[in-house]
Amino acid sequence: MAQNVPPFDYTDDALALRQFVFEYWCEHGRGPNFRNVHEAIGLDRRRIVQAYKQLQLGITVVVNADAQNCDLLKIPPFSSFPSQVECYIDDRFHSYIGCASEAVAVSNMPPFRDKELRLESWCACCLAPITLVSKNFVLESVRPEGVMVHISASPWDWNNDTMGSMCDAMNFVLDHEHADRYERQVSRRGIRVTLPVMKEFVASVAEVRMWDYHWPPGAMNPESVIDVFRSRGVDTTCWDG
Ligand SMILES: [Zn+2]
Fold first, then answer.
1. Domain count of the chain?
2. What whole-number distance in Å separates Cα of residue 75 and Cα of residue 165?
3. Of 75, 95, 125, which one is at a domain's C-terminal end?
4. Which of 54, 75, 96 is the last residue of a domain?
5. pLDDT digit string (tens) for 10-66?
6. Is 227 a domain residue?
7. Per the domain annotation, does 4 fall within a domain?
8. In 3D, which of 226, 64, 57 has the Cα closest to residue 157?
């Protein structure tokens, strides 16, 4: 249960591992394995696994802690597996992005400074192409216009165990009609968030992630998440109850 975790500090191992994984992923477009970690920052197997577990508790990574090699599935803004968003840099595939909201945030990672990132995604219901171009945390273009992020998991269930299901629930839709159809397809309801509001939502993370080596562990607070969206005019009634 990773809600209601009391504040804690990451160990030096966790901080070093987090920084290395971010640097490695930005450079290579994929995550490092144990040998890569060991050769770069000197941690042995036990210290690597324990550090990943702590980073998962602080909502920084998604790992399968029961796997002997502690499979690294996500370290937002990146995903190890084919996700909703592909990132291209200089017209070459770079990496899979963690979710639709990370498509808005990823260009703020320090190694991507002044680089133009093309994010390729699709409407969740009909798979129609959606393309964003982002640079220095500014959306330079969005095609087609009017695209929204659909969030089909209640914040009360974000990070029950890991943040994986939260990321899975953040998808692009073309408009309200397509959002309605997606909701029928997955038998869920969700909020619809414009990209400017989405940017405001992710800013608190995007502006410190990798910029601040000591960025503290995250905490999941469902009420404050809902307030953030409601206060910006998003209809959150589907989360009432
Ligand atoms: Zn659609």
1. 2
2. 14
3. 75
4. 75
5. 999 999 999 999 999 999 999 999 999 999 999 999 999 999 999 999 999 999 999
6. yes
7. no
8. 226
Ligand 1 geometric centre to CA of 125 (Å): 4
Gap from CA of 179 to ligand 1 centroid (Å): 7
pLDDT digit string, tens, across residues 227-237: 999 999 999 99
Task: Write down the pTM of the prediction.
Answer: 0.96
Cα of 152 from ligand 1 centre, angstroms: 15
Q: Cα of 182 to ligand 1 centre, how many Å?
A: 7
d(CA 2, CA 59): 8
133 and 233: one domain?
Answer: yes
Preceding amide of 144 cis, omega within 30: yes
Range of the domain at 150: 77-239
For ligand 1, the distance from its centroid to the CA atom of residue 193, given in whole angstroms, is: 15
On whether both 211 and 122 belong to a single domain, the answer is yes
How many Cβ atoms are within 10 Å of 229's Cβ, its own excluded?
Answer: 20
How confident is the model over 154-205, as pLDDT tens digits? 999 999 999 999 999 999 999 999 999 999 999 999 999 999 999 999 999 9
Q: How far is the CA of 142 from the centre of ligand 1 (A)?
A: 16
